Amino acid sequence: MPANRSPFLRRGIAVVAALPLLALAACGYGSDSKDDTSGTKVAAGSKKIDGLDSVKIGYFGNLTHATALVGVQKGFFQKELGATKVAPAIFNAGPSEIEALNAGSIDIGWIGPSPSINGYTKSNGKSLKIIGGSASGGVKLVVNPKKIKSLKDVKGKKIATPQLGNTQDVAFLNWAADQGWKVDAQSGKGDVTVVRTDNKITPDAYKAGSIDGAWVPEPTASKLVAEGAKVLLDESDLWPDKKFVITNIIVSQKFLKAHPKAVEAVLKASVETNKWINANPDAAKASANKQLEIDSGKALPADVLDPAWKSIQITNDPLASTLNSEAEHAVKAGLLEKPNLDGIYDLTLLNKVLKAAGESPVDAAGLGTS
């Protein structure tokens, strides 16, 4: 295989990687946080880490990225980075965040498993490392109860997923295959029709009747429920112990090598944020919603926020064995050639932080850096 061509990715993933971000900022990748900078104020007398002026952190405006939302809003990241400024960038799509990471427009990112796998394999293992976990769960199949009353009724219907080859798209295709249904992954046509629709548009598509349901992350799932949809299946029920990775922490390998102290500081802040979230769920929910409002200009209403928040588990564990399973699902769907994920994880700094905090180490399921 030529050196300039990924040996792992098929045409479908290449198409995903080329999809544009819906709202571009001046940098061309993500949109910066809005005017409220209370969580990024530098304390007097603080010192820079590794001589860095800033650390650029990317994440999505999703509740499944609660660690990043709360960590920025409550100032956990800024506290650990001292006089090195936190520079948040908000994304709508995983491929765009990977592109930004590769270009150096962000240094560290919160992102789903499929973009992590795609970014790693497309670069032949040179672009990124997964350095920690962040969240499990928060994904549901929600449907129009007038058209779909049972799981078998999904056959023949139009079901939305966020993007060709994204984490939820792969999960739905895998579930459909387990039902014995045939679907062409590229076109989305078959025994069930997969309609790739941006999460921002999905509620309107549901109201218009152009889709019959959706396999989507929170808060989109709860937004659909607020429009009259019903939860037919929680993806957590399909996994051992009801846990599966929905959000990872990734870092540019170049940045990790050059600035390990800064990476360790962000991981320490992440662990502290997760501890605070789990100890203060109501306050954390309000904090995440406040940051969503800062980033997007609109907070979530209680009838969306409350059920969405309950379905997400915040964790430091990257749940590495489930990432490997998700890669296998993508292969089965025909979206990915069997990847070599050896070395995709480097949990050295996270386990150092966890040990210092008196917490148990996490495991890379045999896919860690040797």
Summarize the structure.
The chain has helices spanning 11-18, 66-73, 76-81, 94-103, 113-122, 167-178, 202-208, 220-226, 253-258, 260-279, 281-296, 302-310, 320-333, 348-356; strands at 31-32, 54-60, 85-91, 108-111, 128-137, 139-143, 158-161, 193-196, 213-217, 230-234, 245-252, 312-314.
Describe the SSE topology.
Layout: H1 11-18, E1 31-32, E2 54-60, H2 66-73, H3 76-81, E3 85-91, H4 94-103, E4 108-111, H5 113-122, E5 128-137, E6 139-143, E7 158-161, H6 167-178, E8 193-196, H7 202-208, E9 213-217, H8 220-226, E10 230-234, E11 245-252, H9 253-258, H10 260-279, H11 281-296, H12 302-310, E12 312-314, H13 320-333, H14 348-356
Helix pairs in contact: 2-10, 2-11, 6-13, 8-12, 10-11, 10-14
Helix content: 25-40%
Biggest sheet: strand arrangement:
1-3-2-4-11-5-12
Average predicted local confidence, pLDDT: 89
Structural class: alpha/beta
Radius of gyration: 20 Å
Provide the low-confidence segments as ranges: 1-29
Structural commentary:
- It is a single chain.
- The protein has 370 residues and is of the alpha/beta class.
- The chain has helices at 11-18, 66-73, 76-81, 94-103, 113-122, 167-178, 202-208, 220-226, 253-258, 260-279, 281-296, 302-310, 320-333, 348-356, and strands at 31-32, 54-60, 85-91, 108-111, 128-137, 139-143, 158-161, 193-196, 213-217, 230-234, 245-252, 312-314.
